[in-house]
Specification:
about 280 residues; mainly alpha; 14 helices; about 65% helix; globular
């Protein structure tokens, strides 16, 4: 497998333009049921009715949820105009996620004509309210110059804040930045590894792949076959089906003793146990 961060670097700026939800991972996923609430066992229509009632009574979190329900058609017909309306109300109630979702509406033209400057204004408010996704988005905007004046120094400030707040995709990108000495940052493979590990601990598969590649002999930084195998195994055990990962596991298995392979698998299982326990 070619080193993951070398593959990813061409996507470094592109990755910023993915429209993220207010989860810390992938974009545009439907609202999930909260299994700890009484809404968990309700039908979509009943859940919609309950959330609507709470939103009408001024519950900011319910306003945000109602916006999602309208956006994804959960318990009601999809209606982007109403989604925008409730995201705006959530923002006006002071919810940072409301500002973030309102920014997304202006960014992509959901329920309203797209407007880069208004999108940036709302993302900025989300960032000011310490929402990691807001910080990450502002980094993207300052890198690209969309809706704001391009400023790589400000972009790095926001990216570091998002990473320090635990946003996994931001931590992975910071690893790439320091691995290659981008955006006037010093090239420091040790700092890069620290960010990759932090990103992996917070669930970034890209960061996990970058750690494996960091120690892999294929494009070496600091070769350690046992550590490389450990991280490839973690990725595979998480259910990722990837031919390159499987190929590197097979290649490393041929070069390592059974004791080394057993040790790598044991370490992978221990890391996964801890990771899953933390993320229950």
């Amino acid at each position: 497998m070619r080193k993951a961060y070398l593959v990813c670097i061409g996507l470094l700026l592109l990755c910023f333009f993915v429209v993220l939800t207010d989860s810390s991972h992938a974009a545009s996923t439907p609202p999930k049921k909260d299994t700890t609430s009484k809404e968990a066992d309700l039908s979509p229509a009943a859940s919609f009715a309950l959330v609507s009632d709470k939103a009408a009574k001024g519950d900011a979190s319910a306003m945000l949820s109602l916006g999602r329900f309208y956006e994804y058609g959960h318990g009601a017909s999809r209606n982007f105009t109403k989604a925008l309306e409730w995201y705006r109300k959530a923002a006006e109630a002071g919810l940072p996620e409301g500002y973030y979702k309102l920014g997304v509406c202006y960014e992509v033209g959901m329920g309203i004509t797209s407007d880069e400057k208004k999108a940036a204004e709302n993302f900025s408010k989300a960032a000011d309210l310490k929402l990691p996704l807001g910080m990450h988005k502002m980094a993207a905007l300052y890198f690209s110059g969309n809706g704001v004046v391009k400023n790589e120094a400000k972009a790095m400030e926001f990216l570091i804040k998002a990473g320090e707040a635990g946003l996994p995709q931001a931590a992975n990108v910071l690893g790439l930045v320091y691995m290659h000495g981008l955006y006037a940052q010093p090239k420091d493979t040790g700092v890069a590894l620290d960010w990759f590990v932090f990103g992996a601990d917070n669930g970034s598969l890209d960061a996990m792949a970058n750690i494996a590649a960091y120690f892999d002999e294929a494009t070496p930084v600091k070769v350690n076959l046992s550590k490389a195998l450990k991280w490839y195994l973690i990725i595979k055990k998480l259910g990722v089906q990837n031919e390159n990962v499987n190929a590197r596991i097979a290649a490393l298995n041929k070069k390592m003793s059974q004791q080394q392979k057993d040790s790598a698998e044991k370490e992978a299982d221990a890391w996964l146990d801890q990771f899953r326990s933390k993320n229950k």
